[in-house]
From TrEMBL, chain A:
Keywords: GTPase activation
Domain Rab-GAP TBC: 78-344
Keyword Transcription: no
Protein name: TBC1 domain family member 25-like isoform X1
Automatic annotation (TrEMBL), chain B:
Stretches with biased composition (Low complexity): 188-202
Protein name: Ras-related protein Rab-2A
UniProt source species: Priapulus caudatus
InterPro entries on file: P-loop_NTPase (IPR027417), Rab_GTPases_membrane_traffic (IPR050209), Small_GTP-bd (IPR005225), Small_GTPase (IPR001806)
CDD domains noted in UniProt: Rab2
Lineage: Eukaryota, Metazoa, Ecdysozoa, Scalidophora, Priapulida
Family per record: Belongs to the small GTPase superfamily. Rab family.
Annotated Pfam families: Ras (PF00071)
Listed Gene3D superfamilies: P-loop containing nucleotide triphosphate hydrolases
C-alpha cells in the first residue's frame, strides 16, 4: 500500500502508470501523464524555513520585504516548528505583510482588546436574552465545576500591559478600548443562530483532538478556550455560524500559536477566506471543481469511479474541508496545512495567467475584435488542495480500479489515512499542477502557431479558449 | 466471504446522538467514548445471519449537522434501511425527528424500512424523553422502535438485525424489487452469475475484504 513511502521524489516514476490509459485510447491522458512524469523528475522539496531564514526577510523597520520568496520557501519545505508561530501570524493574516514592527505592536494590543470586547458582547447578549438556559449557554454545558473561565488562560505577557508602561501608552490604550467596544457593538448577530451554534459547539469541543496532550483530559482549560473562540467567531459571522470541522481547524491553530487571541484572529482570517467551503453550496461547489479537475487529468479513473457510483467524490470531502488533517499525523498535517496556505503555486501561476490573458485580449482588440465576457471557471479556482486530492487518487489509481462499488472505494480511501507520505505526495501534486498549467498553455500555443492570416489565427485562438472554458464550466 | 443478500443502511439524526458509536459497537463490538466527529459520510460493514442466510449489511454513517446535508442526502437514495437516531437525554434531538423523517422520505425509496432509535439508555438519570414518547412517534409514523445504548451495547445488535429482518420479510413478500440496486438490496455473487464491474470470481472476496 505504501510502496512510495521511502522513495525519493526524483526517482519516483510511479506516475508513469497514468499511461496505462494509452491502451484504452486516451491520448490526451498520455500527454498529461508524460508531462507529469517530466515534472516529477525535475522538482524537489526543500528544507523547512528556519528562524535565521525568516529573520532575513525583514528590513530595518521590521517590514517583510519579499512576500513572493517567503511563500515559495514555505511552499517548498514548510516551516521549522520553532519559528512556526511567528510565520503563521503573517500567513494567517494577524499581521499585514506590509506592517512594520512598531505597527504590529499596536495591532496586537488592538487585537487583544477587540477580541475581549467581542467575547464579552455575546456573553452579555445571552445574559440579557431572558433565556432560562442563558447560563448554560454562556458557560459550557460540560463544565462540571466553575473552574472553566478561560480568560487569559493562554495569554503570554499581554501586549496591552506592555503598552501601559508609559503615560502616552496608557492614553492610547484608553482610546483603543473605546474603539474596541464600538467595533464589537457594531457586529451583526442572530440570537437564535447563536444559541444553535453553541449547542453544536458544546457537543464538538469535548471530542476535538482528545488524543493530543494539548486537549487531553476532562475539564482541560484548553477546551474552554477552544469553545470561547468558536462561539465568538460564530456569534458575529451569522452567515456561516459554526460548522463542524471548524473545531479541527482551530485546534491546530491553538496548538501552534498557543495564544487564545492570536488563534482567534488567525482562525477568523482563515475561515473568512474560505467560508463558502463551510456552507452547503460551497461544499457542493468544491466537490464539483474537484470532479472537473479529475475528469481533465484522469478521465479514465473518473469514469471508473462513475461506474462504482462515487463520481460525486464525496469520499474526498473530508480531505478538502479539513485540509487533509485526518490523513496525516500532527506534524505532517500541520506542514501540509501551511504549505496549502502559502498559495504559492496558485498566486504564481495566476499572475502568469492574467498576463497571458491580458496580452491576448490586447491583440484581439487591436485586430478590431469584439470582446464579450464569458462566465467561466477560471483556472484560479483550482486551488492546490484540489491538486493534492487528485494526486492522491492518481497515485492509488491501481487500487481504485480494483474497487467494485461505493463501499470498496470508501474502504480503500479510509485505508490511505496515515499511510500517505507527505513529501512524496507534495512532489507529485506540484508536478500535476505544473503539468496542468503547461498543458493549458500548450493548448493555446498550438492554435496560435498555425500558419494562417493573423485574423484567422486570433479567431481560432478565441474559439479554442472558449472550448477550454466550456469544458471547465461543464458540470456532470 | 459470500452472502445471499447485501442490504444498504443509512444512519441519520442530529449531531452527537451517537450514530458513529452505534455503528462502531455493531461492527467492532467496542465503545469509543470520544469519537471524532463525522465529516460527510463514513462507512462500516458486517455480516449477519437471518433465516439461515448470510446477509451483509453495508452501513453509511452520516454527519449530523445541517450544512452537510447537501452531501449526505445522496446516500438516502440507495438505502434499504435507515436508522433514525435521537438522544434520550436531549429533547431537541427528539423534536428534530420530524424534519429528519421528512428529509428521509423525500430522498429515499418509498419502501425503505426505518428504525427509530432512542440512544444512550445508560444515562437513565438524565433521561429527557420518555420511552412512551418514542413509541408513540414510531407508531404514528409507521416506524419500528427501540431504545439502545451504544455504550453498554444494549439492544444494538437487535436494532440492526431487526431492521434487516423487516427488509428480509419485505423481500419474501415481494415488496422490494431485488433486481433494482437502487432499492439498496443486492443479491450475493453466488446467486447472480456475473457482475458488470468486477473481474469474474473476485467479487465475493472484494466485497468482504475491501480493495486494498
Amino acid at each position: 500500500m505504501a510502496d512510495g513511502l521511502t522513495r525519493r521524489c526524483s526517482y519516483d516514476n510511479s506516475f508513469e502508470y497514468v499511461d496505462f490509459t494509452d491502451a484504452s485510447g486516451f491520448s490526451n491522458q498520455s500527454r498529461i501523464g508524460r508531462l507529469i512524469s517530466e515534472e516529477i523528475s525535475s522538482n524537489s522539496r526543500s528544507q523547512p524555513l528556519t528562524r535565521k531564514d525568516f529573520n532575513n526577510f525583514f528590513d530595518t523597520d521590521g517590514r517583510l520585504v519579499d512576500e513572493h520568496l517567503l511563500r515559495k520557501t514555505i511552499f517548498k519545505g514548510g516551516v521549522d516548528p520553532e519559528v512556526r508561530p511567528d510565520v503563521w501570524r503573517f500567513l494567517y493574516g494577524l499581521y499585514p505583510l506590509t506592517s512594520t514592527k512598531r505597527e504590529r505592536q499596536l495591532l496586537l494590543a488592538e487585537s487583544y482588546l477587540k477580541y475581549e470586547a467581542l467575547k464579552q458582547r455575546w456573553k452579555s447578549i445571552l445574559a440579557q436574552s431572558g433565556d432560562p438556559e442563558a447560563e448554560s449557554l454562556i458557560h459550557a454545558r460540560w463544565s462540571e465545576s466553575e473552574g472553566g473561565g478561560s480568560n487569559d488562560v493562554v495569554q503570554r505577557v499581554s501586549p496591552v500591559s506592555a503598552l501601559a508602561q508609559t503615560s502616552e501608552g496608557k492614553q492610547q490604550l484608553e482610546f483603543m478600548k473605546i474603539q474596541a467596544e464600538v467595533y464589537a457593538g457594531r457586529q451583526e448577530y442572530d440570537l437564535n443562530d447563536l444559541k444553535g451554534s453553541i449547542r453544536v459547539i458544546d457537543k464538538d469541543v469535548p471530542r476535538t483532538d482528545k488524543e493530543l496532550d494539548y486537549f487531553k483530559g476532562e475539564n482541560n482549560p484548553m477546551m474552554f478556550v477552544l469553545r470561547d473562540i468558536l462561539v465568538t467567531f460564530a456569534a458575529f459571522h451569522p452567515k456561516v455560524g459554526y460548522a463542524q470541522g471548524m473545531n479541527d481547524i482551530l485546534s491546530r491553530m491553538m496548538i501552534v500559536l498557543d495564544s487564545e487571541v492570536e488563534a482567534f484572529w488567525c482562525f477568523t482570517w482563515y475561515i473568512e477566506e474560505i467560508q463558502l467551503d463551510f456552507i452547503a453550496e460551497g461544499m457542493v461547489r468544491k466537490l464539483s471543481l474537484l470532479r472537473q479537475l479529475l475528469e481533465k487529468l484522469d478521465p479514465d479513473l473518473y469514469n471508473y469511479l462513475g461506474i462504482c457510483g462515487v463520481d460525486d467524490l464525496t469520499f474526498c470531502h473530508r480531505w478538502l474541508i479539513l485540509g487533509f488533517k485526518r490523513e496525516f499525523g500532527f506534524e505532517d498535517g500541520v506542514k501540509l496545512f501551511e504549505i496549502l496556505s502559502s498559495h504559492y503555486l496558485e498566486l504564481h501561476s495566476l499572475e502568469a495567467e492574467t498576463q497571458k490573458r491580458l496580452q491576448r485580449r490586447k491583440n484581439f482588440e487591436q485586430e478590431g475584435g469584439h470582446l464579450r465576457s464569458v462566465d467561466d471557471v477560471s483556472d484560479q479556482e483550482y486551488t492546490f488542495d484540489l491538486f493534492v486530492a487528485v494526486s492522491i487518487m492518481m497515485d492509488h489509481r491501481d487500487k481504485m480500479f480494483r474497487c467494485t462499488d461505493a463501499a470498496t472505494v470508501f474502504q480503500c480511501i479510509a485505508r490511505l489515512s496515515m499511510n500517505i507520505d507527505v513529501n512524496d505526495i507534495l512532489c507529485k501534486s506540484e508536478a500535476v499542477f505544473l503539468s496542468y498549467c503547461r498543458k493549458s498553455v500548450h493548448d493555446c500555443f498550438q492554435v496560435i502557431e498555425r500558419p494562417s492570416s493573423a485574423k484567422e489565427v486570433l479567431k481560432r485562438g478565441m474559439v479554442v479558449e472558449m472550448q477550454v472554458m466550456g469544458k471547465s464550466t461543464k458540470t456532470s | 466471504m459470500s452472502y445471499a443478500y447485501l442490504f444498504k443502511y443509512i444512519i441519520i439524526g442530529d449531531t452527537g446522538v451517537g450514530k458513529s458509536c452505534l455503528l462502531l459497537q455493531f461492527t467492532d463490538k467496542r465503545f469509543q467514548p470520544v469519537h471524532d466527529l463525522t465529516i460527510g459520510v463514513e462507512f462500516g460493514a458486517r455480516m449477519i445471519t437471518i433465516d439461515g442466510k448470510q446477509i451483509k449489511l453495508q452501513i453509511w454513517d452520516t454527519a449530523g449537522q445541517e450544512s452537510f446535508r447537501s452531501i449526505t442526502r445522496s446516500y438516502y437514495r440507495g438505502a434499504a434501511g435507515a436508522l433514525l437516531v435521537y438522544d434520550i437525554t436531549r429533547r431537541d434531538t427528539f423534536t428534530h425527528l420530524t424534519t429528519w423523517l421528512e428529509d428521509a422520505r423525500q430522498h429515499s425509496n418509498s419502501n425503505m424500512v426505518i428504525m427509530l432509535i432512542g440512544n444512550k439508555t445508560d444515562l437513565e438519570s438524565r433521561r429527557d424523553v420518555k420511552k412512551e414518547e418514542g413509541e408513540a412517534f414510531a407508531r404514528e409514523h409507521g416506524l419500528i422502535f427501540m431504545e439502545t445504548s451504544a455504550k453498554t451495547a444494549a439492544n444494538v445488535e437487535e436494532a440492526f438485525i431487526n431492521t434487516a429482518k423487516e427488509i428480509y420479510e419485505k423481500i419474501q413478500e415481494g415488496v422490494f424489487d431485488i433486481n433494482n440496486e437502487a432499492n439498496g438490496i443486492k443479491i450475493g455473487p453466488q446467486h447472480s452469475p456475473s457482475s458488470p464491474h468486477a473481474p469474474s470470481g473476485s467479487l465475493g472476496q472484494q466485497a468482504g475484504g475491501g480493495c486494498c
